[in-house]
Fold:
Amino acid sequence: MANITFTSPSLSRDVTVYAVAGDRGTILAVAKANKIPIPFDCQDGECGSCLVEVKTLSDKRPYGIALTEKEKEALRQLGKITKEEIVQAEVNDIPPRYRLACQCFVRNEDIQVSFVGDETVPAQPPHLSSAAKVFKGGLELKSVDDFLAHAIKVEEDAAIHFDGLAAGMEACGNGEVGKLFRQLAGYSRLHLKEAKTRAKDLDLTAQIPPDYVWPEHATPERTSLYASDADISRLDALRAALVGEKRGYEFYYSVAGTSKNDEIVEMAKEFVKEEAEHVKILEAWIAREEWLSAKHAV
Ligand code: FES
Structure:
């Protein structure tokens, strides 16, 4: 029998579980079976999100291990394994300090498994916009279909909105900003495609009542109205777009943080990740734009 003690800032106290022979599997499998929230994504040793620190709790020599190339590479990329540890693992069978929970099999020994917590969403919750707050307190998504229907609506509206803004910009000769909005519409369409693929034959109208009113009368990713100003600069357009993307991010974040349905939570987290990427891209564009304007002003 193996005692596995899970410890993490995301647990209110350490949790020890017993993994009996024949029913052990990986650390991640044991964690999932016992509702221990080790973050994970690919479950195939590639993404590194299930990183854990493993300590043997007995005085005996730890069981030998076979580090796969995949795990080695992921740990290397995360900066969590040294050359020395690789040699020790390959030559002397001594396990490294960090492992991937989805790749590390529980053996007949007591271990302590430490993990940081769910890093698929930021540790510090973002400031929630009123849309997210209303959503958080008001509307409860009860099923995956319900979530997807809302995600489709959000992304569809965002794509239409960005395309409309792009057309407006192009019509008044501000092609540069128009191109930017087309790019943002493209991002929304990618999301939309993903949500639609998952939703398959879902009837949208069955999920969102036609008279449903979103907070502030706009789906979360819509930018502020002033973005349609014909004289808008690239920098201001980017700032307006950032507001929209952040609202989209907050929307999914609040769903991920409040839904009681595990499947919805997992899906919302994926959208959170992607929205966070878009926010990062926009912030980088804005930083560059600000740098360029400052340079030209000198
Ligand atoms: S879940 Fe991706 S590496 Fe373990």
